Amino acid sequence: MKLKLLFTTAILAISTFSLLAQDKKRKEIGFLVGLQRSNLDYNQITTMNVSEEAKSNIGGSFFLNSRLIGHFITLRTELGFYSKGGTYRGGTVDETNLSYVAAPALMLQTKIGFLKAYAGPQLGFLITAKSKTGNLEQDVKAAYKTTELMGVVGAEMNLPLRLMAGVRYNFGISNINEIAQTTSRPGMYMLYVGLRLHK
Question: In this structure, are residues 124 and 147 in contact, taking their beta carbons and an 8 Å threshold?
Answer without folding.
Answer: yes
